[in-house]
């Protein structure tokens, strides 16, 4: 933690980019690149966004392109879909992923299906920007990781940047995509610093975030940091894969690693039951049944609403220690 | 002009009358919702629009889509789920669209047309065009949050959007007057600072005139507007609905207000057409529909690979 009396030695650290700044730059680059890109959402304008991610864009691109809305998600998210169908490329913000409950129709029934139902005659190039992240006592209605629910809807791409590079690059990829993309940020990553332009990859490709030999750890979003922490701390060697997007799902990278290690641990912050981890486990089990040394293991949050109490919340979320323990247990099994 | 409007109504009447039979005979799959009795709204509104104006409509959208200029053969083939349909057989009656004619689609979610039209209005304004967007919806949809949210958004953003409410009295199986204390939909617009009027929806000339005026004012930047058209749904919520919830003599009363009869009487009384000419016109519409049916019957199903195409905006 830095303080106001930090010496100039802090300067090189400051030269690095924060995740939120990378997002801001990604939004600005997308708007610079294409006049049709507009930003729509609650407080995204002069307010700069509740987490300051859109700060400065209103001044730079004007109120016609950075459009403040009433607290009216069903209306403005639906309008953004209509705008995408008619020539704009909207990036529409849903302030908290949890709020998707009040505006699921434009995502679930409209954006995801209109291109398909019209046999490609209509295009819906839209980005639904939102954020999630438990671990700060935000309570059960502000902490949910719902990527599996969205990934379950055919027609939606679901992107979850876990690094500074991806915060920027995946945003540009999402805006350039011809179809609807749900772009899920993690607010616990907003202050994280890192380098832009490190190991750039296109949307749909997973990244080996840490090479290793004993266990393939598949993860995404905020859990990547915990898994990297586990890789440092664990008694066994972890190969950590950052999926970067849930849809498309880069199983090739996962399977290539799992063939070598023979053990797979899927880690995610979302509740474990019926989650994306189950999908990955099923696919690995199907494709590599004979090569696996142990059954695929999942480590997610138990299926309970997120409690407010910080100690309870901490205990439920997968952390570096529980991940390291789970990996060691897999190696002990076989 | 009235003769042209009559012709549009006659085509919709012939199309849906035939579709109802084909559905009953099992030739058309899925669900079908007809707008028989409501043709004046579709014809009057759409004739007041340009080809490049936008239209978002409902599950009861055949009339609107046809009146806006969608290809008749493509429409019929789509209802038959054939490869030659407007949506390649992947949309169907409730999802038929024709973006080349500004038709953003029928929509199976009650109230969904309004935010989509709001977005189309936003595009038009932002891109410096003067295209108007029309959202068709029934009076049942005004109890959805989308109505209120979209109306408010259009109002604060001054968008060129016309909210075209077809008040046909029935929200699915329910008399919609029992679902609200505010019988006139137009009254609700007042709360959002939106100019609104209630019009006889079976008088195609009145529908056309009020829509033309609203569209022109939208192009001048005076939008949005809400237009409530009072009409009546002859058939059930869907084809096959026996309508046990309707009072016995109600349908007969409304058949006297058949928009084709009203317009036809006006044309013959003014000497603009003879009843023989109108009869001939209706027969011509029937023949066009029959030829579309024959073409749809003969058309192939989509290939299996089409089921996998256009999932992600490709």
TrEMBL record, chain A:
Its cofactor is thiamine diphosphate. It is an enzyme of class 1 (oxidoreductase). GO terms for molecular function: branched-chain 2-oxo acid dehydrogenase activity; magnesium ion binding. InterPro entries: THDP-binding, Transketo_C/PFOR_II, Transketolase-like_Pyr-bd, Transketolase_C. Keywords: Oxidoreductase, Thiamine pyrophosphate. SUPFAM superfamilies: Thiamin diphosphate-binding fold (THDP-binding) (SSF52518), TK C-terminal domain-like (SSF52922). It comes from the Bacteria. Pfam families: Transket_pyr, Transketolase_C. Residues 17-192 form the Transketolase-like pyrimidine-binding domain. Its EC number is 1.2.4.4. This is 2-oxoisovalerate dehydrogenase subunit beta. It comes from Capillimicrobium parvum.
TrEMBL record, chain B:
GO terms for biological process: pyruvate decarboxylation to acetyl-CoA. Residues 7-304 form the Dehydrogenase E1 component domain. The keyword Cell membrane does not apply. It comes from the Bacteria. Its cofactor is thiamine diphosphate. Its EC number is 1.1.1.-. One of its GO terms (molecular function) is magnesium ion binding. The keyword Oxidoreductase applies. Keywords: Oxidoreductase, Thiamine pyrophosphate. Pfam families: E1_dh. This is Acetoin:2,6-dichlorophenolindophenol oxidoreductase subunit alpha. The gene is acoA_5.
């Amino acid at each position: 933690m830095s303080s106001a009396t930090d010496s100039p030695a802090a300067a090189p650290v400051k030269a690095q980019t924060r995740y939120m700044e990378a997002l801001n730059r990604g939004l600005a680059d997308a708007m610079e690149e294409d006049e049709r890109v507009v930003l729509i959402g609650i407080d995204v304008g002069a307010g700069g966004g509740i987490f300051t991610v859109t700060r400065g864009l209103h001044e730079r691109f004007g109120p016609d392109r950075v459009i403040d809305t009433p607290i009216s998600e069903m209306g403005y998210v639906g309008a953004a879909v209509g705008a995408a169908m008619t020539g704009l490329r909207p990036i529409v913000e849903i302030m908290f992923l949890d709020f998707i409950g009040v505006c699921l129709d434009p995502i679930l029934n409209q954006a995801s299906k209109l291109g398909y139902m019209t046999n490609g005659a209509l295009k819906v190039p839209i980005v639904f920007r939102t954020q999630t992240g438990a671990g700060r006592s935000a309570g059960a209605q502000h902490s949910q990781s719902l990527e599996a629910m969205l990934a379950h809807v055919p027609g939606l791409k679901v992107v979850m940047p876990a690094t500074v590079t991806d915060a920027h690059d995946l945003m540009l990829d999402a805006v350039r995509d011809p179809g609807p993309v749900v772009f899920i940020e993690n607010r616990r990553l907003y202050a994280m610093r890192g380098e832009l332009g490190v190991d750039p990859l296109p949307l749909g490709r997973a990244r080996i975030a840490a090479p290793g030999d004993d266990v393939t750890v598949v993860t995404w979003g905020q859990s990547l940091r915990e898994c990297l922490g586990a890789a440092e701390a664990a008694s066994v060697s972890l190969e950590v894969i950052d999926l970067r997007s849930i849809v498309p799902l880069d199983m090739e990278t996962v399977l290539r690693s799992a063939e070598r290690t023979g053990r797979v641990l899927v880690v995610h912050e979302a509740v474990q039951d019926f989650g994306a981890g189950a999908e990955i486990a099923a696919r690995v089990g199907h494709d590599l049944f004979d090569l696996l040394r142990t059954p695929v293991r999942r480590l997610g949050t138990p299926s309970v609403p997120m409690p407010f109490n910080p100690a309870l919340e901490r205990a439920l979320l997968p952390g570096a220690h529980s991940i390291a323990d789970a990996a060691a247990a897999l190696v002990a099994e076989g | 002009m009235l003769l042209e409007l009559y012709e549009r109504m006659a085509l919709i009447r012939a199309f849906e009358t035939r579709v109802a039979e084909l559905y009953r005979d099992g030739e058309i799959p899925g669900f079908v919702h007809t707008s028989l009795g409501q043709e004046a709204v579709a014809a009057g509104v759409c004739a007041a629009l340009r080809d490049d104006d936008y239209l978002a409509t409902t599950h009861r959208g055949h009339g609107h889509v046809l009146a806006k200029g969608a290809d008749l053969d493509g429409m019929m083939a789509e209802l038959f789920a054939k490869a030659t349909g407007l949506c390649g057989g992947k949309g169907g009656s409730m999802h038929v669209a024709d973006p080349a004619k500004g038709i953003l689609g029928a929509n199976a979610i009650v109230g969904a047309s309004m935010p989509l039209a709001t977005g189309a209005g936003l595009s038009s304004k932002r891109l410096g065009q003067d295209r108007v967007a029309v959202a068709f919806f029934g009076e049942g949809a005004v109890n959805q949050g989308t109505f209120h949210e979209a109306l408010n958004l259009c109002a604060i953003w001054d968008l060129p959007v016309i909210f075209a409410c077809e008040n046909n009295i029935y929200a699915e199986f329910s008399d919609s007057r029992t679902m609200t204390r505010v019988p006139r939909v137009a009254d609700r617009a007042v709360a959002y600072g939106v100019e609104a009027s209630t019009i006889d929806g079976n008088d195609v000339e009145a529908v056309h005139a009020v829509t033309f005026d609203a569209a022109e004012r939208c192009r001048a930047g005076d939008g949005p507007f809400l237009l409530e058209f009072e009409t009546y749904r002859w058939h059930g919520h869907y084809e096959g609905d026996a309508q046990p919830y309707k009072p016995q003599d109600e349908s007969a009363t409304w058949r006297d207000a058949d928009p084709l009869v009203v317009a036809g009487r006006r044309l013959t009384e003014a000497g603009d057409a003879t009843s023989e000419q109108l009869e001939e016109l209706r027969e011509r519409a029937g023949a066009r529909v029959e030829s579309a049916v024959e073409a749809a019957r003969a058309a192939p199903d989509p290939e299996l690979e089409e089921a996998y195409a256009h999932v992600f905006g490709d």
